Every structure is written in structure tokens, then in C-alpha cells.
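User: Teach me something about this protein's shape.
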Amino acid sequence: MEQAVAAADTAWMLAAFAAVSIMVAGLALFYGGMVSVKNTLNMAMMVFGALAVVGVLWIVVGYSASFGDSVGGLGLLGDPMEYFGSSKLLDAPTTPGLPPAIFSAFQLLFAALTVALIAGAVADRMKFGSWMIFAGIWALLVYFPVAHWVFAFDAKDGSVHGGWIANKLKAIDFAGGTAVHINAGVAGLALALVLGKRHVFPNSPRPHSLPLTMLGAGILFFGWFGFNGGSALSSGNSASVVVLNTLAASCAGILAWLAVEKLKEGHATTLGGASGLIAALVGITPACGAVSPLGALVVGAACGAVCCFAVSLKYRFGFDDSLDVVGIHLAGGILGTVLIGLLADPSAPNAVAGLFYGGGFDQLWRQTAAALAVLAYTFVVTFVIAKVMQMVGGIRVDEESEATGLDLSVHSETAYVLEHFTASSARPEPADAVAMAEAMIDEAAATVE
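Assistant: First, the predicted structure itself:
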């Protein structure tokens, strides 16, 4: 019986891994459609570049630093040498359970996607080489330690000591509100502050392809069920509840964003719908195992509404968060993490009661402390990394490259065939345009006859 359960759990984790892996392409499309036509490929390359750099580091040292036995039992960092090179992960479990290799592969994608999220805050202006170096340094100094804090739990037999947030503070973060979304959001803010504003800010270029962005959002939506559901690490009731809560929050988030957008701007837009979906998914990520489906609706609606306001803060405070990483991932991550302290339902998989369910303020302060700790650590370390890199070799492209676009100036490619849209192409005079239109009408009429 135990072997059958273990096989089912492994199958579920393999499926969840596959779903999360497609989120890399989803994020590339989501971000790629939001930038101008001349920076589409660069945006996709930053996402896939993050996957490559973080993936290599994870195999060598990242898994060990994140899930190894805590150095000195302090809960700050796993032993980097315990699983160095990941060769120990080849061994099958001695008792029925998940193979360590699939758990490592699953968590590798979490690390890569967290780094890739940061790219949206610095779109259109960061050197690609500098981005790749930053991605590696940031993963080593920020993501791996924070992942240990949040995701590494003590072994029941006391043989392994995990992170301080998971085991001492006992804050709930089911799938990464702190380690993924607050982490990426505040890192994006720090990096954007060091890089400075784009020359066109605050008149940001319009998204060049909203269909691509909507497609990317749909792929992310699909992958998120593996992201959250797979974090249950089993195919049982917990994963099922998490999937339901993730879906419920998503629906509420779309509606809330569109409603606020309609009241603010007079329009309900496709970009707003996609943004509301992502904001709700961000917020439910930490809370999906702690709340009821009704609580998930509240989390999703709150994140959709609040993040719709939060994305405009960059204009008020003057920081250039290109693709609203701060407004959605930082704001949504904080909100989803803290709301657990209010909405946690003891009948949910995490079995913790929030303030509204008779639990008092105990879980609320724990959630708040976890969010503030990650926010402070990540901002300071990211800012220092970016400043040092800026002083050593520079991290921003020159003004000419920014104006030309990074696809051409950095990668010597273009996303589309643009001959007919370049300045050198002859544009028809108004009279010629009228004549062409009349000819087309005559041709269409003749076809009908």
C-alpha cells in the first residue's frame, strides 16, 4: 500500500514539474508581449537566461544551500557541501516516498522563475551580460538562503535542521509568497532604483502584442496549478484543496481588477484582466493551503483590487518598474502572506486558525514578521549587489542601444520582419492612400458582383 501511494505521489510530482516548466515560456511570452517590439527577444532571453544560470548553480550548490542541514543549526543557510554536485540525489529513497531527484528538479524551477520575475522590473535598459552575472550572484546570496528560511523544514527525527522562518517563526508560506514573490518584487525595486529610469519614463511604450501577453498569462495560469498543487508534495486531499483555492482566487482577482480599472479609467482592458489574474495567483500562492475556498475568493479579490492601485505607485514615487513587478509581485506577495493571519481556516490543510477563525493575533504577527524579514534582507543585499556591479563594469546599456532596442543592439536579431515598418520605407501620401482605398473598394465590389 505504501509503495502504491509513493508511486502516485511521484507521478503527481512529475506532472506538477512538467506544468511548472512551461511557466518559463509563459513568463517569456507574458513579458515579451508587454514590451515594445524592439525589446521582445531580449525580454525572452532574460527569462531563459535566468533559467540557465540558476539551473547550473542549483545542481552544483543551490539544492544543498537551500535544503541541506542548517549550518550551525541557526536556520540561515543549508550546508553548501552536503549535496554538492547533486550526486547524492541519484539514490532511491530507502523507504517509500518521493525520489529526491524530482523534488530537486521541482525546486530548481522555483529558483529560476523567481530570478526571471525580476527581469520585468528592469526591461529595456539592462546589459544582458550584466543580467546573467546578476542572476547568478543574486541566486547565491539571496534566493538560496531565503529558500532555506522558508521551505526547509526540520526532519521529524531531528537529523536535519531547517530554516528559521519555517521552524522557529512558524510562518505559513505554502508555495512561495515570501521566498518567490516578495523576494522577486523587492529585488526588482532595488535593481530598478540602481539602474535608473528609462529615457522615455513616465511615458512607457505601449505593449506591442497584447495577444502574446494574454497567451503568456494563460500558460502561467496552467502552470500555477502545478506550482501550488505540487507544493503539497503528494497527490491527496491537500493538493486538491490547493488547486480549488488557486482557481477560486484567480476568478475573483480578474473581476476585482477589472472593476477597479473600470471605475478608475472608464475601461476594462485585456491587460487589466491578465494582470488581475497574475495578482490573484501571486496572493494565493502562500495562502492556498491555509484558507477555505471562500477565503481564497477574498484573497484573490483583495489582490486584484489592491494591485490595480499599486501599479501606479511608480509614477507617484518616480521609480521605473517597467512591467509592474513591484506593483503585482511585491504588493500581492505581502498581501497574500499577511492575509493568512486573518483568514487561515483550521479545517484547511495547514490546520492553523487566523484572527477571524478564533486564532487571535498569533499567526498574524508571524506572517507579518516573515514578510518584513524577507523584504528587508533582500532589498539591502540586492541593492549592494547592483551598486557593486554598477561601479565595477556598469549594468546599463548606452543611450543609443536603448533607443535602437536591445533585440538589435544586443542580440543582432528582430522578433518580426520589420521592413515595411521602418522609417526608410516610403509611406504613401494621403492622396495615394485614398486612391489605394478606393481601388480596394472597387475590387471588393467587383468580387461580390
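Now, about its shape. The CA atoms of residues 428 and 436 lie 9 Å apart. The radius of gyration is 23 Å. If you'd like, I can walk through any region in more detail.
User: That's plenty for now, thanks!
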